Give the backbone structure.
Amino acid sequence: MSSKSIKSLLVAVFSLASMVFANTANSQAPEPKTKEHKEEKFDAGEIIIDHVMDAHEFHLLTIPNKENHKESKHISIPLPVIMYSKDKGFSFFMSSAFHHGEKVQSGYRLLTKEFMKEHGLDTVKNGNDKVYATGKIYAVDSAGMPDANAKIYDLSLTKNATQMILSLALLLFLMLNIAKKYKSGLGVNNAPKGWQNALEPVITFVRDDVAKPNLGKKYTKYLPFLLTVFFFILINNLFGLIPGAANVTGNIAFTFILGMISFIIILFSTNKHYWSHIFWPPVPHGVKPILIPVEILGIFTKPFALIIRLFANMLAGHIIILSFICLIFIMAAMKQALGWGTSPLFTALAVFIYLLEVLVAFIQAYIFTTLSAVFIGQAFEGGHDDGHH
């Protein structure tokens, strides 16, 4: 019964996604050429990039107006915009005040691809060789044109930042609620219930199969960090699979910060034995000049591996799903019957990758946590005070 419910949910999800892409495709579909209107083609790459990049709103749906593109209806959840400049100070307003880049608010404009095309800013550079970018907020001049030279600071809550805060709030809510139950004795002398019952096996798994084998007797010192990283990545991975949500773990800035946190913990866990192996490895003297630079480089490749592995895997999955859906409209652009005929195949492939991404969400959280534990264990391994493991 649950399997049928999941299948029904997935069908609904991808039907909604198909509607979103269909509406976007229709808004870009070729129309009769006139003097004031040029033919626009379906650009799959542009659509995919728009969906995986950060933004100042959660865009859900676009209802196109074929006669006037500017009157197309956008259904989205606006987010707070916080701007600062030396001349204007702080400015606070919601992203909906931009009306999807059509209006100027408090001396700022959200640059959209439509505005860039309309004003010839696709590849235009100013005198300082700065390039305008879509989705970014710029200060404007008296004519309402973006000024790339103006020094401003964007402190806005974008969809990545907002979703990350929501994930953190959910993590705190779950863990504090579970801790409260344990403190009251529930789950200690009797069977755990609810979320306590669901998360206890996962916590035990991280402790027994990740922390203890790699950290030995010191596992209790690092277990809070490992559990926090595991659940924080997992929650963000799963949130990213919700249609319209942000792919936070597919953002290099997010994985970079997590990698740097692990890197700092690894460095603070090192001992004299660790550094002696790097700067004076136990190999023949003729090999030392070759091996020492390799060992030094290895210090930085560890966090780099953590950063790139999580980022690349989570971004790639989303791109593949979107690519299969876009293929339907690419085929339809060549011939409508071909689009209808191939849609079941590409939809099935997209659903398969979506299910695979649910599994990948757990695997990538596990891999990041395990590798962090391995690298920390290597940092103090061989010292006099390390546990036997």
